[in-house]
């Protein structure tokens, strides 16, 4: 992941590039997907400085669209999950606080259509949509910390299910990396709970390197 300083310098470069069309892109920024610079330039050129929700929505919309066409299966499906989680929670929270949440939803799939147009308590999804049902149950907890932990447990379970048949390949490595990012978030937010999450994940990793009998080498 890139540091805060990296992004501050990147924004400074984008600002400078708006006045210098032929400015060469520094090597450290060339690996970034094109939409990153394009979106930053669009936001910087707006007449009024965009609000954080607007800027975040535009960047995430481009990010999820970009990842939806990625060549790697895990990346495509992981970011699809993240987009769905974000949309569902935005709708649940928005309705609970009587806010206009539709403009903050990302994408145009069936989930977004249901969240936008359905007046049903469960947005027309309920138990027939496992992800919505799980998120709804987690959201109903009164303790915000438990909610956030619940969302990450759901993510970790999804990773395990997705990589169940992947013994050691790129997708499994990406799954481990995603779990480490979850752990890092908790270590920063709550050291004790972060350690608990870390040891729980470590124990699961230690027990996950078991190959099926078909892979055993017979002497």
Secondary-structure blueprint of this entry?
Blueprint (H helix, E strand, L loop, with lengths): L3 H16 L14 H11 L7 H17 L4 H24 L13 H8 L12 H10 L4 H19 L7 H20 L1 H16 L13
Helix pairs in contact: 1-2, 2-3, 4-5, 4-6, 6-7, 7-8, 8-9
Number of strands: 0
Mean pLDDT: 88
Largest sheet: none
Radius of gyration (CA) equals: 21 Å
Strand portion: under 5%
How many helices does DSSP assign?
A: 9
Q: What are the secondary-structure elements, in order, as H or E? A: HHHHHHHHH
Overall geometric form: globular
Query: What structural class do you assign from the helix and strand content?
Result: mainly alpha
| Uncertain stretches | 214-219
Q: Level of helix content?
A: 55-70%
**Distance N terminus to C terminus?**
45 Å
Molecular structure report:
This protein is mainly alpha-helical and 219 residues long. The protein is built from 9 helices and no strands. The longest helix is centred in the middle third of the chain and has 24 residues, at 73-96.
List keywords for this structure.
mainly alpha; globular; disordered C terminus
What is shown here, in short?
This protein is mostly helical and 219 residues long.
